Amino acid sequence: MNIQRFIEKRKARGLSQSELAKGICTQVTVSRFEKNGQVPTLKILIQLCNRLELPLGELFPRVGIKQPEILEKMEEAEFFLITSEHDRLQTILKNIPFDEIKDSQLLLEYYYLQGFVMIFQNASLMDCLFTFEKLLFEEQKYTSDIYRLLAFTGIGMAYAKEGEIEKAEFYFNKVFKEIYLYTIQSMEDTWRVLNVVFHCGVFYAEKGDLETSDALLEYAISICSDNHVTYYLARAAFQLAKNALAEEKPQEQILELLQDARAYAKINKNRILLEAIQTLKETILSKNN
After folding, report:
1. What CATH number does the domain containing 22 carry?
2. Residue in 289, 265, 285, 268 with CA at minimum distance from that of residue 277
3. Are residues 76 and 165 located together in one domain of the fold?
4. 80-95 residues labelled b (16+ CB within 10 A) or e (exposed)
5. Could you say which of 19, 38, 181, 232 would form a disulfide bridge with 15 (CB–CB 3.0 to 4.6 Å)?
6. Is residue 257, in this structure, part of any structural domain at all?
7. Per-residue pLDDT tens over the stretch 161-206
8. Do 53 and 71 share a domain, yes or no?
9. What is the CATH classification number for the domain harbouring 71?
10. How many CB atoms lie within 10 A of CB 70?
């Protein structure tokens, strides 16, 4: 994101951070965005850009600071993982020339994305495990805790998909003990921590431990709030709604969670989740007829 363009436009209009923020957000929100790259919610960002008469698209330029083509493809692929568009994710990975990946960080990201898409596309257990083993092997060179936790999460998910719950729980327990202590260092880090926390929450929900699941999903929502991101908010709220349904909580509470999930899913243009939300809502309401 071209934050420098945002800063230049604010200064050109003679606005301080406080003047720009007035009536929209706090001065601290603008400061965090400009200094630390902490992106506010889409609604706030649009309002700030409108006040500056700055088209939002200018923050996402095709020109400017050049990024390697592979890195751009990886970032796009990771977004499709967030929005559950696994076919599009797999297409991007297939078009990345693997032999040209020389950077250790990019190789870690490739294995992590490949492992997760293999789970969702029902690859064999052994193939999934082998991919995550490669991730763990590469992680030892780079020493990145988040990729190790992503690998453990993926291995747990792969075992759970095969019904091997005891093995799955071994890995999820390892993640559960460490993820609360992990310090988020970047926006990309935020996405990956949310990936881990969310899928841990889903696992414990499917296992029937709704109390643990609810705690993890609420933690995911607090991470989103603290870091001003909306990704995974919709999925966390939707899973909380499913948990509430299983716990036989009041229908009003469940529908409120679904409404929250729908609002966030619309912001993120998560078409697949919007369809799932509508289906569950119709199922709940049909029971009243």
Report:
1. 1.10.260.40
2. 265
3. yes
4. bbbbebbebbbebbee
5. 19
6. no
7. 999 999 999 999 889 888 888 888 888 889 999 999 999 999 999 9
8. no
9. 1.25.40.10
10. 18
